[in-house]
Specification:
By secondary structure, this protein is α/β, with parallel strands linked by helices. It has 3 domains: 213 residues, P-loop containing nucleotide triphosphate hydrolases (Rossmann fold), CATH 3.40.50.300; 78 residues; 71 residues, Winged helix-like DNA-binding domain superfamily/Winged helix DNA-binding domain (Arc Repressor Mutant, subunit A, Orthogonal Bundle). The chain contains 16 helices and 8 strands. The strands form 2 sheets. A 5-stranded parallel β-sheet has the order 2-3-4-1-5, sandwiched between helices. The radius of gyration is 23 Å and the shape is globular.
């Protein structure tokens, strides 16, 4: 098979050639956009799932839907070492620039940008040198008296309310997309929930769409109890067999190629329905196959190479980020997961297997959670954020 025509695209956040199995979520978001456009009350949305299930891809697809309706949109990728003010400023600035391309003469846009600049400048520490102060790149002066108190919850409520008022004046909406939302700080999560709560009560045309790991709903609930009713939670999971087959067949057929039934079955077994793995195995299988239709024998030849690539790029890069103590903790998790047929494992059982007191393992566990390698599935349990990571760890030398 011609490798130049290989249609498969395993990459972080890279849209696959066929976005299979996500029609329901795309249709739901179309309804959300239409309801907000008609000033109907609607909740913001939270996407959750393990790594490799396509949350970022879906988030970008939802953003494209909003752009298609001439909404103003902005996107943030949260980081644990960064507060919300600066990335949110950039995201809203981008959203307003999109609106201004259709409504250049609206004075209210300039007024909002002045408020946004004031909000942004509060991220600079007081007493710092002028040359070290961050400038948000917004033309015009900052205004005062709105979204500039220094209290992120007060400021965010005021800022997003003003952004929604701008969207109302323009006759459209604004959507903010936040990837890796679990990495926001506790104060920022609380402020974001408060702002979304305020907007939901007024039916304002501004929505937030977040994506994060499975414990994100618990973080939101711990911040504000009403967050359970504030957001529409959508769990993004593995593809079923039909969707996984479509993700392979549709791109191949556009290149005048196909897979036989046994090959599709073998690829589903190998990828286990995870979209990233479907692309990874599909790409290598295409390259090793001599001709179409691609067969199960081709999949068998390709599997070791695909697994080797995943071991380096998908699993290994994460493993290398862990300290020796953290690796020891994860190996114990992997062995317990193997004996319990997968899923979450008890933190007390991890301690027993390592012959340690649970309290002595808390630093390693908390650091792994902060690094996004594990999450607390429920109180007293932990699980890997990466599918098949336990299986990978069991193959690594101690």
């Amino acid at each position: 098979m011609d490798p130049v025509r290989n249609p498969y695209a395993p990459g972080a956040g890279q849209r696959p050639p066929e976005l299979a199995g996500r029609d329901r979520e795309l249709d739901q978001f179309d309804v959300v956009l239409e309801r907000v456009s008609r000033r109907r009350p609607e909740r913001s949305m939270i996407l959750t799932g393990l790594r490799g299930v396509g949350k970022t891809v879906l988030l970008n697809a939802l953003r494209s839907q909003a752009i298609g309706r001439r909404w103003g949109t902005g996107k943030i990728e949260a980081r644990p070492d960064q507060q919300l003010r600066r990335p949110l400023t950039n995201a809203l600035h981008m959203a307003v620039r999109e609106l201004s391309s259709h409504h250049r003469a609206l004075d209210q846009i300039d007024d909002f940008l002045g408020t946004l600049k004031a909000f942004a400048l509060r991220s600079n520490p007081s007493g710092g040198k002028i040359r070290d102060r961050w400038q948000p790149g917004i033309d015009g002066p900052a205004t005062s008296g709105r979204a500039d108190s220094g209290d992120i919850e007060i400021d965010l409520v005021e800022l997003l309310t003003d952004a929604a008022d701008l969207a109302t004046a323009v006759g459209t909406g604004i959507a903010l997309f936040i990837d890796e939302m679990q990495d926001l700080g506790a104060e920022d999560i609380s402020a974001l929930c408060a702002a979304c709560h305020e907007l939901s009560q007024t039916g304002a045309p501004l929505i937030v769409v977040g994506a994060g790991l499975p414990h994100l709903p618990a973080l939101l609930s711990a911040s504000k109890s009403y967050s359970e009713r504030l957001f529409r939670y959508v769990r993004i999971d593995r593809l079923d067999r039909a969707a996984a087959d479509l993700a392979l067949l549709a791109p191949a057929e556009r290149e005048d190629a196909t897979f036989d039934e046994d090959a599709l079955a073998a690829l589903y077994d190998a990828a286990d329905g995870y979209p990233y793995f479907v692309q990874a195995y599909g790409k290598v299988t295409w390259d090793v196959a001599p001709r179409s239709p691609i067969t199960a024998a081709d999949v068998k030849v390709a599997a070791p190479e695909a697994e080797a690539e995943l071991a380096v790029g998908f699993f290994g890069s994460r493993y290398e980020r862990a300290t020796p103590a953290e690796r020891e903790y994860m190996r114990a998790m992997a062995e317990l997961e193997n004996s319990s047929d997968g899923g979450a494992v008890s933190t007390s059982e991890v301690a027993v297997s390592l012959g340690r007191k649970p309290s002595s393992l808390s630093p390693a566990r908390d650091s792994l959670i902060k690094k996004g390698l594990i999450y607390s599935a429920e109180r007293g349990t932990v699980a890997f954020t990466v599918p098949h990571f336990a299986r990978y760890l069991r193959t690594q030398p101690t």
